[in-house]
Amino acid sequence: MKNTATIGLLAVLCIGLAVFSCNTVNPDSTNTTGKLRLAFDNRLGASDLNLRTGSYQNDAGEAFSITKFNYFVSNIRLRKADGSEYVVPQDSSYFLIQEEKPVSQTITLSNIPVGDYTSLTFMVGVDSLRSLADISKRTGVLDPGLNDGMYWEWNSGYIFMKLEGQSASAPATQNNTFFYHVGGFGGGYNGKKTINNLRTVTLSFNNDVAKVQAASTPTVQLTTDALTVFNGPTKLSIAEHSSVMFDPYSTNIANNYARMFTYTRIQTSL
Questions:
Q1: Cα(202)–Cα(121) distance, rounded to whole angstroms?
Q2: Cα separation, 267 vs 38, whole angstroms
Q3: Where do the structural domains in the chain lie, given as residue ranges?
Q4: Average pLDDT of 219-243?
Q5: What is the pLDDT of residue 189?
Q6: Residue 22 above 70 pLDDT?
Q7: I want to staple 144 with a disulfide (CB 3.0 to 4.6 A). Which of 39, 92, 151, 252 is the partner?
Q8: How far is CA 136 from CA 80, 91, 140, 143, 180, in A?
């Protein structure tokens, strides 16, 4: 009887230890998601972007300073090394990058499936679906009253990219200021197609990999070169175009800002 009882007790202990081992060997084994950060470093060519105090020059030879630089990033997709894609849910995929608010320049994407990611795609602007959605669906940075004037009340639409500054090349009648407020999602008005300045950007991480894991968070460092707004495929002259909003020329600026993003590096932290 004693041997039988001893054997039974040992069996129970072994089962208990096995269950405990399964629950404690790898506490992250059931975690299938992690986080990924995108950090935007706003620059002008080889120089850091300094609001009001920085002095820069475009390809037209015009000296200028920047007083405001904002842009929307949305509709983010991440591509894995195996070619599969993860689409960030729309309700969690709208961000407003503001030079005057450093905290806005690093965004955190949560609930990302673990894996190795090699590129990302995002949109500059706010798509038509969200632009026309009920106001209850447009909160946070999409709240027209709380997004640093990135919404046209008169045109009922978001400003995708806002660049403002001062230059001796700008008209004295504008107090030597210039501004580029670019938006338009390509809807229709009175039977006519309107301007579409939404632009999609895809950036490869080259030979690097952003390893999303439950226990560590990679940060993808990106550079945004605001000088490309002037020096892109269309050479933008402040003297010739000191103020651009919802007009046909704005598509040239949109084509320029679509090229202002480049991949820099990946850093990983706990």
A1: 4
A2: 10
A3: 30-269
A4: 98
A5: 63
A6: no
A7: 151
A8: 33, 12, 10, 9, 29
Residue with tokens 């905290």: 103
Contact in structure between 117 and 88 (CB atoms under 8 Å): no
Helix (H, G, I), strand (E, B) or coil at 210: strand
Residue 108: alpha-carbon gap to chain centroid = 10
Whole-number Å distance between alpha carbons of 62 and 51:
17
CA dihedral 102, 184, 65, 200 (to 10 degrees): 60
Residue 23 has pLDDT above 80, yes or no: no
SS3 at position 204: strand
Backbone angles phi, psi at 205, to 5 degrees: -90, 20
Characterize 192-212 residue by residue with b for buried, 16 or more Cβ atoms within 10 angstroms of its Cβ, and e for exposed: eeebebbbebebebeebebbb
> What is the pLDDT, as a whole number, of residue 190?
62
Residues 97-137 pLDDT 10s: 999 999 999 999 999 999 999 999 999 999 999 999 999 99
Residue at token pair 């001062």: 166
In this structure, what token pair is assigned to residue 214? 């439950």
Alpha helices by DSSP H, listed for 33-154, are 128-131
Report which secondary-structure segment, H or E, holds 52.
Answer: none
Residue 181 pLDDT > 90, yes or no? Answer: yes
Q: How far apart are CA 244 and CA 113, in angstroms?
A: 41
pTM of the model: 0.87
Average pLDDT over residues 237-258: 97
Q: Measuring CA to CA, how many Å separate 131 from each of 94, 192, 199?
A: 11, 18, 15
